[in-house]
Amino acid sequence: MSGSTKLGRTVADNFIWVLVVVFLIGASLTLPRFFSSVNFINMLYHSAAISMMILGMSFCLLANKMDLSIESTFAFAPAVGVLVVTQWAPGIPPSLSVLIALLVGAFIGLINGILVVKLKINSFLATLAMLIILRGLLVYILPQGIWDVPELINFLGSAKVEMGAIKIPIAIPIYVLLFIFAGFVVGNTSFGKNLIAVGSNPVAAFIAGINIERIYILVFVISGVCAAFGGILLGGRIGSMLNGMGEGDILLVFAGTVLGGISLDGGKGKVTNALGGALLLTIISTILNFSGVSPFIIKAIQGFILLAAMIMSNFSNVISKGATQP
Amino acid sequence: MISESLATGKPPAKSVAYRVSGIGKQYSGTVVLAGIDIDFVEGEIHGIIGKNGAGKSTLVNIMHGSEAPSTGILSIFGTEIDHLTPARAHDMQVVLVPQKTNYALDLTVAESLFLGSYPRRTFGLINRKEIIERSREYLGKIGLDLDPDTKMADVSLEDRRLIEVIKALWCFNARVLILDETTAALSIRPRQKLFELLRKITRDEGRTVLFISHRLEEMMDICDRISVLRDGALIETADTAELTIERLAELITGGRDLAVKTAQDVSDDQIGKTVLKVSNLSQQGRFTDVGFEARIGEIVGLTGMVGSGYSALLRHLGGLAPQGSDGMVEIDGRIVTPTTPQAMKKLGLAYLTNKREDEALFHGLSISHNMIGGSFAKYASAAGVLDRAQVSQTVSELQHQLEIKMGGESDPIDSLSGGNKQKVVVARLLNANLEVYLLDEVAEGIDIGARRALLDFIRTNIRREAAVVMASNVVSDLMEVCDRIMVMYHGEIIRTFTPDEFDEHEIYSSLQGIGCA
C-alpha cells in the first residue's frame, strides 16, 4: 500500500478529530467569546458525565452488544451510594459512597451480563428492561433529591486546580486519562485483542478458544462502572443527587460513540476516538447556545450531525473497497 | 448454425460468444489483472485455471459485471459493453453460478429456482402451477430426483449446487454459463451428471460454458480449451487435445517442481505415544460407535460423503458440539469430555473448521490479528501488556513458513486471496503448538503448488510433535500424506485403508457405500 493511502487511511479512521478541530476553528472565528480558556474548559467540564457513559458504551459496542441501561445506572448507582452513607447506614464514612456506587454499577453490569449470556436474551432487550426497572426503582428510593452530597463526591466533581489565572476542574484530567487508559487496554492487551475478536466474529472467537461469555460479562460490568462514575462526576458538579439525572441521555451516548467511529457491527473503532465524539456533541451544543439558537432545536441538530457522520463513513467504506455496488 | 452444417456439409464457423480484450484491473496501485485477451467461442467448454491469487475470480467478476475493469473492452455476442452490471449480464444471457451461494433455506426448490424470474398471472400474482411443472421438467434434465416442494434446507449441499446450475440454464436462459468452482463440493456421480449436461448444452444447443476450477484432471476431462492465468496475466490458451496434465501443471506454476509425492517416509521409531483415543463414541443423529487411535507422528485420514458424519465427529472432538454424546475420549491417556474449544485447547487439541469465512476469519481485522487469533495471552507480560515486537516476529515467521502472499501484517485480512486466508488460519493453529490437530479440509481453496507445499509441511513439520487427523473429500490429498485413511458412511467407520491399499477408485467406492458388508 503506497504511503499516501496509508496516510489517507489514518485520517479516515481518526476523522472525528478533524471535525472537532474544524468546528473549534470555525466557531472561534465566527462567534465572539467562543475562543477563550473559560469556554474551552467549560466545554470539557460539561462533557465529563456523558463522556463516561460513552466510554462504557464503547466497550459494549466493540463486543457487538448494547447497554441501554447506562443512563439509569448513571443515576441509580451514585444515588444508592449516597443513600447508604446518609440515610441507610449513617455510621460509615461518607467517602465510601463512591466505592459503593462503583460496586453497584458493577453489580448491575453483572446482572446485564448474566441476562445476555446465560439467559440468552438479546442485549438490546435485556438492557432496555433494566433501563426501565432501574429508573423505576430510583424514583421509588429517591422521591426527592438529596442536596447534601458527601465531600468526596463533591471533590471529584467540582474541585479545581489553579494554573496561573486558569482554574481546571480535576474531573477533566480524570476522564481524559481514563479514555487514554481504556484505549491502551483495548489496543495493547490480550483482553483488548480478544474483545475485538469477539465483536468481530463471536463464533470464530469461540472456536479459537476465547472465553466469549467472560468477555461479554466483563464489558457489561465495565459499562456499569463507567456509568456509575459518570453519575458521581455529575452529582459532584451540581452538588446534588436527583432521580432524573441522565434521563434521555442514551440517545446522545449512541450518537457520540458512532460519531467517534465505533461501529455498530462490533469489532471496529478506537475508544479514544469516542472521546472525540463526545466532545464534538458538546462543542456543537455550545455553538448553538452561543448563537442564540433556541435550545429546543439543539437535539435535532445533533441528530443531523450524527446522520451526516454515518453517511460520510459509509461513503468512505465504499470507496476503500472499490465496489461498484453497495 | 447446426442446420448450416447439415446443409453444406462444412463445419459451422464458430462465432465468438464473449470476447475480453486487453482486460486489466488494479486496486490502488496493485495490478491484479493485465492484458487479458480471450475469445470464448460459442459451443465450447472453456476452462480457466490458475493458482490462488492468479486473478481468476477477478476476471470472472469483471465478466459478470460485479466489478468494473480498469482497462479493456468486453464484447458479448458482438456488442461492446460499457459498464456491465450483473443485471445487464443477465439480460444478455450471461449467467454466473458463483463459488459460494447464500441460499434462502426456507424456500422450496421450485421457489428457489424461479427466484428473480417468477412467471406471473394477472395482478402480478405468482403462477405456482407453472413453477412446479417447469421445475419438474428442469430437474429431470439433470436427472435430479427431487420433489419441487422440498425445502432447500432439506436438500443436500451437492444437489443445491446442481439446482443453481439448472436455474442459470433454464430460468435465466444462459447462453454463456460461468461455473466458478462448482464442482468443489460434488462427489463422483453428481459431477458426472453435471458433465453430461454441460456436454449436451454445448454440443447440441450451442451454449458456451466457462469452467473455473482447480482440478487438473477435471479440466482435462471436460474442457475443449483451457486458458491458464498466472499472476494476473494470461499465460496461454490451449486446446485440451494438445495438452498433457504435466504441461498444464507447468503452465500453472511456471515450471516448478510438482513431482507427485506418494506414501510416507516416516519410520516406526518416529511414531510416539497415543495422544488421542476414541472408543465407542456416538452422537445422536450424527455418528455411531466410532473408535480409533492417533499417535504422535501419525497423520490419520478421514473421509466420507457430505453428511456421513466425519465433520460432525471432528467438531464434537473439538468441543464445538458437546451435546448428546456417548462413549469415551482420551487425550494423553486421560479421559476427557469435550466441552468447549477453550477447554480442548488447554488439553492440547484444536479443530480447524471447514467453514473458513464464517467460523474462522475475523473480517475487518488485520492479518496479524487473524493469525494470532485467540493466543494473544502468550505474548502478554504479567500485567497483560502485549509485546508487539514478539507478535510481529511470530507473524513474520509463520508467513515465511507457509509462504503466505500478503502485504503488511496490519493490512486487512480480506485483502488476501481465499487460499492465502486459509493459510493464515492454518498458521493460527500451528502457532498454538498442539498435540492433536483436527484438520477439516485444510487445503480448501489452496491451489496446486501451494497445496503440495502445505501437505508437505504438515507431513514433515507437524507430525514430529503431534498427531493429525485430517478430514477431506479430496481423496488424492489424503492418499498423499496419510498413514491410513478411515472411511465413514452413514455415521460409522466402515473401512480403514492402509497405504498399500490406497487406490482412489477403491476409496471413492467405499465412501459411496459400495462394496461394504
Description:
The complex is a heterodimer of chains A (326) and B (517). With 326 residues, chain A is mostly helical. Chain A has a single domain (36-310), classed as ABC transporter involved in vitamin B12 uptake, BtuC. In chain A, 73% of the residues lie in helices and 2% in strands. In chain A, helix 2 (15-30) packs parallel to helix 13 (271-290), helix 3 (37-62) packs across helix 13 (271-290) and helix 12 (250-259) crosses helix 13. The model of chain A is unreliable at 322-326 (pLDDT under 50). Chain B has 517 residues and is of the alpha/beta class. Chain B contains 18 helices and 20 strands. Chain B has helices spanning 2-8, 56-64, 86-91, 109-113, 128-141, 157-171, 188-203, 216-222, 245-253, 310-317, 341-346, 356-359, 367-372, 388-402, 418-431, 448-465, 475-481, 504-511, and strands at residues 16-27, 30-41, 45-50, 71-76, 79-81, 94-97, 176-180, 208-212, 225-230, 233-239, 274-283, 287-295, 299-304, 325-331, 334-336, 349-352, 436-440, 467-471, 484-489, 492-497. A six-stranded mixed sheet of chain B has the order 6-7-8-3-9-10, sandwiched between helices. In chain B, a hairpin with a 2-residue loop joins strand 9 and strand 10. In chain B, helix 14 (388-402) crosses helix 15 (418-431). Chain B starts with a helix and ends in a 6-residue tail after the last helix.
